[in-house]
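Lab notebook, design round three. We kept the backbone fixed and only want residue identities now. Task for the bench partner: fill in a sequence for the structure below.
Input structure tokens:
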């Protein structure tokens, strides 16, 4: 994007902020116009942390499910194949 040593322009920052805002779920940012860059970065960090928590929870659930399954069952084979892809 920007070359080494070249300062990023305000226009480029605004474009990146808009792109970042478009990646957040609607519930994470207000619909009353564009958020400030610092508020948007805080919301993004919070959203990423919540995604990490969700992944950890799903991983724990999957581990528990795998522990209760017969390792030779067709369901266990399906889960293993999904995890490999």
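Proposed sequence:
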């Amino acid at each position: 994007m920007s070359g080494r040593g070249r300062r990023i322009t305000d226009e480029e920052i605004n474009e990146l902020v808009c792109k970042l805002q478009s990646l957040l779920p609607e519930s994470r940012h207000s619909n009353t116009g564009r958020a400030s860059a610092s508020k948007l970065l805080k919301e993004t960090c919070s959203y990423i942390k919540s995604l990490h928590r969700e992944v950890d929870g799903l991983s724990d659930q999957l581990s528990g499910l795998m522990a209760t399954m017969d390792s030779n069952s067709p369901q266990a084979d399906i889960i293993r194949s999904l995890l490999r892809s």
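Keep this in mind before ordering anything: The chain has three helices and no strands.
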